[in-house]
Amino acid sequence: MFSAPPIGTVCPFAGQVDPIEGAKNDLWGNLPCAGTNAAPAVTAESPINHLESQGWMLCDGRYLNAHSYTELYAVLGSLYGEKGSGSDLTFRIPDYRGLFLRGLDAGAGMDPDAKTRQNPTGNNDANVVGSLQCDTMQEHTHTYDVTQPSGISQQGSAAGTNVTSKSTSSPESPARTSTETRPKNIAVNYIIKFR
């Protein structure tokens, strides 16, 4: 028999979720990979799922009243930010819209840039759950042949003049370029268990 997932569990959900359109993610506005062009997420034909009646909500970075969502506040606390005090205390849930999730390194050494992650409130470097890394491409070199006018051929791995490139792609499959480095992916809604 399966037990219910614990409060704070995040999972992908393949349907459209209400609310379907939220505010732009400006949490990490001081980073070069901050959110830019917000756009509506659904079309009129998309069915809307009201998951909050089932104890789940979209991970959209909204603030919730700590006294109304005591169990979730006990799990998240101020990790993603909080405002106010007393009966007006609110806390922020994670905003995972448009992002890939990555397991926390937790000392494994698999994330070589773990110490430079931005904390969940966008204020400092911190290698913690909810921290962000901007997109990047690993440094690399390409092998090439240089033909000198005298006919002497050299091999190397730095840019230069008189370069004759070796191409590994055929004209039928040109390289795809975009504004980010990314693998093939499918968009899902990340939802969080709040009760």
* Extended strand count: 11
Radius of gyration: 23 Å
Enumerate the strands of the largest sheet in spatial order, edge to edge or round the barrel.
Answer: 1-11-4
* Largest sheet: number of strands, sense, barrel closure: 3 strands, antiparallel
Helical percentage: under 10%
Number of helices in the DSSP assignment: 1
Write the H/E string, N to C. EEEEEHEEEEEE
Distance between the termini: 20 Å
The class by helix and strand makeup works out as: mainly beta
- β-strand amount: 15-25%
Shape: elongated
Chain-averaged pLDDT? 80
Low-pLDDT segments, ≥5 res? none
Q: Keyphrases for this structure?
A:
195 residues, 3-stranded antiparallel sheet, single chain, 17% strand, mainly beta, elongated
Describe this structure in words.
The protein is mostly beta strands. Helices cover 4% and strands 17% of the residues. It contains 1 helix and 11 strands; from the N terminus they run E-E-E-E-E-H-E-E-E-E-E-E. A 3-stranded antiparallel beta sheet has the order 1-11-4, with no helix packed on it. Strand 8 and strand 9 form a beta hairpin. The longest helix is centred in the middle third of the chain and has 7 residues. It is elongated, with a radius of gyration of 23 Å. The relative contact order is 0.22. The model has no long low-confidence stretch (mean pLDDT 80).
